[in-house]
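Table 4 source record.
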Amino acid sequence: MCRVRTFFTVVFLLALPAAGLVPFSAEAAMQKSFEVSGWIPYWRAATGTADVLPNISTLTEVNPFVYTLVEDGALIDNGLIDQEPWLSLRAEAKSKNIRFIPTVMTSNSELVHTLLSNTQSRIALEDTLANLVKESGFDGIDIDFEGKKAETRDYYSTFLKGLKMRLKDKWLMCSIESRTPLADRYYGTTPPPDATTYANDLKAIGKYCDRVRIMAYDQQSIDLKLAAQYASSSQLYAPVGDPAWVEKVILLVARDIPKNKLMIGIPTYGYEYDVTAYAGPEYLYKILWTFNPGYAIPLAEKLGITPYRTPWGELAFSYAPTSTSTPSGVATSSLSAQAISGLSTALAASAYAQTYNSNLPFRYVVWPDAESVRQKVELAKRLGVRGVSIFKLDGGQDPNIWNVLATNAKAPARAPLARGLSLGSIGEDVRTLQMILNADAATQIAVSGAGSPGSETTRFGPLTKRAVQKFQEKYGIAKKGHPAFGTVGPATRAQLNALLQTL
């Protein structure tokens, strides 16, 4: 369930064409109630930035996927982030108050354990990352350490705690693997003794990370319950990310991580499988490669196939490659390239296996498009999480994704403050007040916990009163001794609403 870990037999053809939450500057805009972030991979820097730049206002945050952790705890900048085209992207992001937060990635579990289990090397890594953010002027850092060992769990939590402390007023983002409910993951089987031994302490991650991106993709067959339901009707089922599964994952992790920190990861790439049908029916899937839609759509056109929308919302088609061999004299017309239904192809292959006591391979191609993204955005909004994170934005995804994000992921406009507010006031307008105050480090309510950015509340308490006082002092509205000091009266409300209009 991750970007870099191998599941089945994977060949990653990426070259195919296609925590204590604080704003990043005193001038930063109020955080959108629904956020959209996106990773741009270094191997597609030119096309990725060219794709994102004209659509950057759709995003809340952009994540250059550039840094790799190496053996000595140092970082390799694979993408030359201090050069073009990143510089233009960064300047545009800054001008629009969009966070620019690079990702540090590794899937080397031994390396992570070695570095984090040693106090000296762990602290050195925390310092390296914090200094990188400070010296480069980034808005924060995104930690993407995948495939960690279970014994690394507590060391990783300590690392996040130390890193957050060093980052101070910068953002700490954490990208982690999905977690499927045990009853669904081991449906029809007996869970192994270590089934509940996890490498991620979700409570600690939720405490120290400002945003937690759940990589809710690369699902394949991890949810045995859903797989069994599809298999019972002979349907092919190897999704990149079924919303039904994503919902299970999010509801599970939301038990330990606040929803206002959770981001649902959405993929823009697909898989081609070599599927073997056996009597039963039974289908065995072997991943051949990943791809962008720029591969799948021309292939379908070449084969004369019309892709169909799967029940879980992704696009798919199946076909028999010309290299497929069958016993002499056996007709395979039902598995020709003209088959447009995954179900009909699966049934034909299953019937062949049953009739000839053999098996028959064929290809299955499945990928998400703009409609798939729309469904995930709607799911995120329905579940009440902070937003979505797109992997990846490299110019090779369905271009209609931008229209979907622009029209479906916009945060609803907040109504201006219309009444006086003071200690003890309760209501959504108090939350709006707190969000405006939290947009400026000088008037921030709290670094973490209730009232902090991302955790605004509907109650006007002592911390909100103190933040209002700081706001009034900054704008010369009132000071200590004034009867309105610490309350939102007409003058204070006018200034707050003026700022709200610019967001």
